[in-house]
Amino acid sequence: MSTYLEKCQKLRKLVGISGSGPAAVTEQSGMNEKITIWIADADEWIIRKWEDWSFMLESKKIISAIAGTSTYTLSDLSLTDHGRWRRGSFARNPGTGSVQKLTQILNYDDYLKSDEYLGEAQTGPIEKVIVRPSDDAVIFWPTPTADTTVWAAYYKKVTRLAADTSVSPIPERFDSATLNRAKMFYAEFLEDTSLYASAEKDFERDMLRLESKHAPSFDGNYMSNNDIDEDIVVE
Q1: What pairing do the DSSP bridges indicate for beta strands 103-105 and 128-132?
Q2: CA-based torsion, 40, 42, 45, 46: positive or negative
Q3: Per-residue confidence at 221, pLDDT binned at 50, 70, 90?
C-alpha cells in the first residue's frame, strides 16, 4: 500500500515541481508543506464524499449485552474508530438457529414518546435497538433479562493522514483519484485554469471507477448521498 509520504512524493513528480522531497510529512515548509496538505486534503475530501464507502465498513462488531443493562456507549464497546452505525445491521444471537434481526428505531424523539419508552413492561428478549443521536450510544429494548450476543456493522470515522507511514483506507488501485484531486488543489494555487480542467477531467474519471465499485449509494449523477438499509450478513 502506498504511504502518505510516498503519495506526496508521487504528486511532486506528477505535476513536475522542481526540487526534491518532501523527505517527511511533518515539519515541512514552502512547496513541500503545501504538497503534504494537498494530499491529506484530497484523501479526506474523497472519503467524506460518501458515508457508505464499502472500504470504511466494519461488518462484524460483537456486542455482549448484559442482563439488566440496556444502554451501551461507544466507550463501553471499546469503539475508537466508530463513525456511525449501519442502519438495519443489528442482529441478535448471530450464528445460531435463533438469529433475529432487530428492528431499528430511526427517530429517537419518536422513541422517547413511544410505548416502548413509557410503558411498564420493558424487560425480556431484545427486540429493538435505538441509536442515541447525541453520542451514537446503543439502547436495547426491552432491557435484556439474559446475557445476549448482538452483531452489528458500522462505518469507521474519517482519520486525516498524519504520519509518513499512514495508509489511506481507499484501495491502492485508486491512488490516482487522490493524486488528481491533489493536482486540482495545485492548479488552484497556480490559478492555472487549463491545468485545473485537465486534472478535474482525470479526477472525475477516477472517481467514477471508485464510486461504481465502492459507493453503494452512488447513482451515477454525483448527487445522491443517502444511506441504504441493507441487512448485515450473519454467518
Answers
A1: parallel
A2: negative
A3: low
Cell of 26: 511533518
For the chain, first and last CA: distance in Å? 29
Fill in the DSSP letter of residue 126.
-
Query: What would the 3-class secondary structure string for 54-66 be?
Result: HHHEEEEEEEEEC
How far is the C-alpha of 45 from the C-alpha of 59, rounded, in Å? 23
The pLDDT value given to residue 95: 67
The pLDDT tens digits of the residues spanning 88-125 come to: 899 998 667 778 899 988 888 888 887 667 665 588 89
The count of C-alpha atoms lying within 13 angstroms of the C-alpha of 139, restricted to the half-sphere facing its C-beta, is 17
Instruction: Give residue for cell 460483537.
Output: 62
Please state the separation of Cα 56 from the chain's center in Å: 4
Instruction: Check if the beta carbon of residue 46 is closer than 8 Å to that of residue 207.
Output: yes
Candidates 155, 160, 159; CA nearest to 214 is 155
C-alpha cell at position 128: 429493538
- This prediction has a pTM of 0.83
Rg (CA), the chain: 22
Quick: pLDDT tens for 132-189: 999 999 999 999 999 999 999 999 999 999 999 999 999 999 999 999 999 999 999 9
Q: Cα separation of 3 and 37, whole Å?
A: 14
Q: Which three cell numbers stand for residue 175?
A: 491512488
The set of residues, in sequence order, having a beta carbon less than 8 Å from that of 218 and lying 6+ positions away, is 50, 211, 212, 224
pLDDT band at 57 (very low <50, low <70, confident <90, very high): very high
Query: What is the SS3 assignment for 121?
Result: coil
